[in-house]
Amino acid sequence: MGEKQASADGDRRIGRRALLIGGTAAAVGSAVLARDELARLWWRAPGVEKPRVQGAVDFRGAQWVAASDANWRRADRPDDYGIDMVVIHVTQGSFASAVKVFQDPGHGAAAHYIVRKDGHITQMIRELDVAYHAGNRAYNERSVGIEHEGFVDRPEDFTDEMYAASARLTAGICARYAIPVDREHIIGHVEVPGTDHTDPGEHWDWERYMRLVRKVPSASA
């Protein structure tokens, strides 16, 4: 499960960032920097709101349960941050405990999805928004995070239903953003630079999982 990283990924105050952008652009005369940053931020200005549908999910069949606003950052992906990666996590606890901590504003972290042992999928953050799940700001901005109920040292937690449901979810994400279905773009939390996490662990069957993802008709080649 993602660790707390509000301090590392918490640039949620547009006023301060906009001032920094303007000041930096004026100081160094970098029109390219200003144009790039403003293109990412224009819709976050006062009076400009990205259209949202309450309770909408990105994966058909998923159940919407909102994470705390403190555990993610509003964005307009892939327009402001390209999505080219899926990060696989294990909750190190029950499904219910993962939902609870992702709804806790003091936790400082949450993933976009949680997959239960029976294959049920809950979405807690929209894919267009940046979830604090990877412990690395750049990876948060470019990825979708998927948690899986269970413990890394209990292979029995990774059920057939879980693998199948998660594979369909990942295949859909890859198709949506033209992400290659390979191990460079579908990675474990342990593979994120700078992380101290070990999930999904040695018992996660990557060969099986990737085979299942590729078998989904919508999967990106």
Strand content: 5-15%
Order of helices and strands: HHHEEEHEEEHEHEH
Number of strands: 8
Biggest sheet strand order reads 1-5-4-7-3-8
Helix content: 25-40%
- End-to-end C-alpha gap: 29 Å
What structural class results from the helix and strand content?
A: alpha/beta
* Sheet having the most strands: 6 strands, mixed
3D shape:
globular
How large is the radius of gyration?
18 Å
Protein name: N-acetylmuramoyl-L-alanine amidase
EC number: 3.5.1.28
Keywords: Cell wall biogenesis/degradation, Hydrolase
Organism: Streptomyces doebereineriae
Characteristics of this structure?
single chain; alpha/beta; six-stranded mixed sheet; two-stranded antiparallel sheet; 7 helices; globular; disordered N terminus
Written description of the protein model:
This protein has 221 residues and is α/β, with parallel strands linked by helices. Helix content is 33%, strand content 11%. The relative contact order is 0.17.
Would you kindly provide a brief summary of this structure?
The chain is of the alpha/beta class and 221 residues long.
Blueprint (SSEs and pairs):
Blueprint: H1 6-9, H2 14-28, H3 31-41, E1 63-64, E2 72-73, E3 85-88, H4 95-102, E4 113-115, E5 121-123, E6 130-131, H5 137-142, E7 143-148, H6 160-177, E8 186-188, H7 206-215
Parallel strand pairs: 1-5, 3-7, 3-8, 4-7
Antiparallel strand pairs: 2-6, 4-5
